[in-house]
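Per-record layout

source: Streptomyces rapamycinicus
name: Isochorismatase hydrolase
length: 187
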Amino acid sequence: MNMNANKTALLVMDVQEGIVARVQDPDYVPRVSRAADAARNAGIPVVYVAIGFRSGRPEGSARNKIVGSLPPGLYTEDDPKIAIHAGVAPRPDEVVVTKRRVSAFAGSDLDVVLRSGDITHLVLTGVATSGVVLSTLRQAADLDFRLTVLSDACYDPDPEVHRLLIEKVFPSQAELMTVEEWVKAAG
């Protein structure tokens, strides 16, 4: 695979303390960290995407089944659980984008950041496969980004849903690789 470092970005999505606390795979964070280190070593920007709401969650509608069902105060700016997990913490010069919905693009300036950096290829990681990864993949494909999904750097609480998305849904819009395959290609 020809990876032009100037056109590719690795997205680390929703790998936040409160979300990762529910991940049942102890090797998940180290794999994401390995992908981030490989990206940095190859000159590929690492962009973090985090769910975050203002105090009182004014951007949350009761009509939104996911956002409306969150307990009060969860993932608001006062909640320490919104911090990026310490095992994959961004470096001071790396961009952290705050989103207000499931997709990394919804309610964020991600598109502006990517287009300003002349990014055309996104490498996706995140929790959950059926949430941020699926929603971001679909929107990014519609925005004409080239896509790669790091299958073992995505996690879903339902292993069957993860498998179905990775094997049946994502291949129509993205290249699928493991972290190890991508590390070798990026290096």
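summary: The chain has a mean pLDDT of 92. The domain at 8-186 is CATH 3.40.50.850 (Rossmann fold).
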